[in-house]
Amino acid sequence: MTAHPSDPMDDIDLAIMDALRHAVTLADPVPPTLVSDIEFSLSLAAMNAELARLANEPAGVRSPVADSADTVTFTSSTMTLMVVIGRDDGQLRIDAWVSGGGITVELIQGADRVAAVSDVNGRVSWARVQPGLARFLISPITAGGRPVITPAIEL
């Protein structure tokens, strides 16, 4: 073990650091989506889109087990998007309602984007959706408005 903090680390120091890294990784692993969330946040700034938030999201709660929900609601300063995740003949089906009719909503999964326009009641839907991470991009509701994008959710 090194005698002074300015001395170079020796094999004992490296073994201690490796054991510490291993313990922290087991106790509090890096969330699997951290890198994609950071990339998303950086691209969001470049895109000038408003980020919707999950409505009624418990703040600061962490669990080793993921919660499952079939209905998720996102809100922003200009709109609300309620998403219902269901199954149709073994395939995922997404039904959603946005604040208004005639609004384009895109379902984004990786590089795949599928747009739908809301009906007069604000309803949009996508059939045969693949499981995995997804976001929704809502076109501006008013002229000169900004698009709204949701955080990623696991379908």
How does this model look, in words?
By secondary structure, this protein is of the alpha+beta class. The protein has two domains: 1-30; 34-154, Immunoglobulin-like, CATH 2.60.40. It contains two helices and eleven strands; from the N terminus they run H-H-E-E-E-E-E-E-E-E-E-E-E. It has helices at residues 11-27, 34-47; strands at 50-51, 53-54, 71-75, 80-88, 91-98, 104-109, 112-117, 123-129, 133-138, 148-149, 153-154. Strands 1, 6, 7, 9, 10 and 11 form a six-stranded mixed β-sheet that branches. Strands 2-3-4-5-8 form a five-stranded antiparallel β-sheet, with no helix packed on it. Strand 4 (80-88) and strand 5 form a beta hairpin. 14% of the residues are buried.
What is the C-alpha radius of gyration, as a whole number of Å?
A: 21 Å
The share of residues in extended strands comes to: 35-45%
Output the structural class: alpha+beta
CATH topology of the largest domain: Immunoglobulin-like
Q: What count of helical segments does DSSP give?
A: 2
Mean pLDDT across residues: 83
What is the architecture of the largest domain at the second tier of CATH?
Sandwich
**What is the CATH first-level class name of the largest domain?**
Mainly Beta
Instruction: Give the topology string: H per helix, E per strand.
Output: HHEEEEEEEEEEE
List its salient traits.
155 residues; alpha+beta; Immunoglobulin-like; 6-stranded mixed sheet; 5-stranded antiparallel sheet; 20% helix; elongated
